[in-house]
Structures are given as C-alpha cells and as structure tokens.
Model the fold of this input.
Amino acid sequence: MGLLNKLDDPYYGGGIILGTLEDVLNWGRSKSDWYLQFGLACCAIEFMAVNASHFDFMRFGCIPRTSPRQADFMIVSGTVTMKMAERIKTLYEQMAEPRYVISMGSCANCGGPYWEHGYHVLKGVDRVIPVDVYVPGCPPRPEALEEGMIKLQKMINEQAIFNKRKRLREAEEKEKSVSDVVLSQN
Done:
C-alpha cells in the first residue's frame, strides 16, 4: 500500500488508536518535555555531550529553556554546595506543576567524593527538592542520562492526571475536617 493510498483511506489496516483522554495527554506530556539545566561541575560537561549531534537529546522531545516558568523538569548535575541549594530550591518552586527532577551524577545524588571532607557540600540534592530519577556515575556517560530520560518519560506516561486532583481534594477536605475538630475542642 503506497503513501497516496494511505492518505485516501487512513483507517485501513489498523489506523484507529483507542485510549483514554488521560493516555493521550500523558503521551503528549512525556514526548514534549522542556528542561532547565542546572550544571555545576564535570557532569555538566557530559551533559553538553548529550546535547551534541552524536547523542541528540532533542530526539526525545527535550528542549532547553532558560526560565524555570517554562520548564517541565530540571536536570541537576554536579556538586551541589550549601549556597547553591537555596537557589536550586527557588528555581524548583518557580516551576509550574507537574514538575520533575533528574539528579545526574554521584555528587548530585549523594555528595560524591567531596561530601566526606567538605562541610560546604550538600549530601544529595534530594535533601532540598524531591528527585524523580537518579542517574548514577562520576560523571555518568551520556547514554546513562538518555536512559534516565526514558525512565522519566515512562513515569510521566503512567501518571494519573484526573485521579490525582480528586485525591488532593479529598486530602484537603480531610485536613479541613481535622482542623475543624481541633478548633471545636479548643
């Protein structure tokens, strides 16, 4: 069957895709992620290789953004110091929901080789912001970051959008009822 025949009859041969609205939205969100890169040390050099033509990070639908308000996820790579932790948290809070974090390299994951001898090194970025995907290595190879991106896309693809809002509403109502009971006891 040629291309012109396919255009005349697009539904021939299984051209219909069935799914829920949530599946379609998650598919779109997982394939068009915009990222904010927070490179701090040698892992940032490896990240530059991922963006080069040999590895082509953009084929995953990842586009770099300079503003946290436009980013869907943040990649933290390298040694996070106590001073930088405040800035990372500020940038994370400026990102719109839903937001994700990839921690790249041993230093961002757990402090790396510096945490033992330096009082200024944070023992993992997950102490200030929640991390969704950890990419191990010192520094990790570009293929490892690509594997981490695939894991993040799978996680986004399987997320519950509509039920999440319902669960949040139920949790808020429960908190409100607990606070009403506490207030009535006083």
